[in-house]
């Protein structure tokens, strides 16, 4: 449960090795969280020492995005370790390479399953638990890549578009339950996963995304952008004629 001043005590990170996800967890620990569960394939044998140094107890559970039948069990395992879940950060996924996906459609389908359908099963499992608790926030890492899909990464972008829509619908389904969803739309973030991608305008660091999430949790926001300038920028891009958008997406 949250403490007497409303700070989250427990955090579950789905995607326990995600750089952005870990930055969010560290930010929440600095804000007072004391029980952290890192969920990843094979578990997380060596959790970041900074979390323990900040006073958090760190646990690990098995989580495989490609095994939807096991996702309810992952959530139950986390609850068994720390009790009620105050914040669940949904941060798993793969970026991949568009040209490689076009050359190997089966690999594209596998990536899309991780980036979309894995989130459907995990998100519904988390929502069921939060609804039962009557409180808690599911933080979903979407992307501006899904706001309007571009040619150069349309396999990834289309999965993120689906995830964004799913997260918004899930938020509506939780309305009135005491639980809620926070959708996060970062732009380009330099991480190990994006190392092969050319930098884009208005980048954000993992720490800046984490700060946006912390601010959104405090304010009760439903959506945050990182950086915030992307919100009006992509509002305009949604209205851009398709022929022009196609040229920009090359």
From TrEMBL:
InterPro entries: NAD(P)-bd_dom_sf, Sc_DH/Rdtase_CS, SDR_fam. Coiled coil: none annotated. Pfam families: adh_short. Signal peptide: none annotated. The keyword Transferase does not apply. The keyword Oxidoreductase applies. Transmembrane segments: none annotated. Gene3D superfamilies: NAD(P)-binding Rossmann-like Domain. Keywords: Oxidoreductase. Belongs to the short-chain dehydrogenases/reductases (SDR) family. This is SDR family NAD(P)-dependent oxidoreductase. It comes from Nocardiopsis codii.
